[in-house]
Amino acid sequence: MRTAKNDRQEMLIKLIKENEISTQDDLTALMKANGFNITQATCSRDIKDLGIIKVTMPNNGTKYAVPEKTGNVAPGRLLAVFTNSLISCKNAVNLVVIKTLPGMAQAAASALDSLHLQQIIGSIAGDDTVFAACGSEEEASALVEIINDMMNREGIVS
């Protein structure tokens, strides 16, 4: 059964895929222009529910992006697994070192891989640490910014 929420979230995903949107205000305005009378708070909840992330563009600006689904797991759930297991994130040259709760690095790495972020060449996980290899120092810095944004959105202090 289709609901207004389904239609709204489908439009939100479509707009993010087709446009470079960097703020919730811009996204809310686009939604209104497409016939959806929503508030910024509703937009924010939809972003969280759908697991929408902010990515850094080559010009160092940011935009919203829709992670690809992996199997039957919703992107929002993957994002929750990832962000709820993080302790800190720092870059070392072209590597990003992500510290997690004990025993959570493998789950965090799997969730991170499923986001298909263009900055990541590959990742490896131990018990409480994930190493993500990037192509350059700039890409590693951008990845740290993306991950820290996810942590800050979930209220995690690094």
What does this structure look like?
The chain has six helices and six strands; from the N terminus they run αααββαββαββα. It has 158 residues and is of the alpha+beta class. It folds into two domains: 47 residues, Winged helix-like DNA-binding domain superfamily/Winged helix DNA-binding domain (Arc Repressor Mutant, subunit A); 79 residues, 2-Layer Sandwich (Gyrase A, domain 2). The strands form two sheets. A four-stranded antiparallel β-sheet has the order 3-4-6-5. The chain has a two-stranded antiparallel ribbon with strand order 1-2. α4 runs antiparallel to α5. It starts with a helix and ends in a 5-residue tail after the last helix.
Question: Can you lay out the helices and strands and say which pair or pack?
Answer:
Layout: H1 4-18, H2 24-33, H3 40-50, E1 53-56, E2 62-65, H4 75-85, E3 86-92, E4 95-100, H5 105-114, E5 120-125, E6 129-134, H6 137-153
Antiparallel strand pairs: 1-2, 3-4, 4-6, 5-6
Which short descriptors sum up this protein?
single chain, about 160 residues, alpha+beta, Arc Repressor Mutant, subunit A, Gyrase A, domain 2, 2 domains, 4-stranded antiparallel β-sheet, two-stranded antiparallel ribbon, 6 strands, globular
Shape: globular
Distance between the termini: 41 Å
The average pLDDT is 84
Strand order of the largest sheet: 3-4-6-5
Give the C-alpha Rg.
16 Å
Strand-pairing-aware structural class: alpha+beta
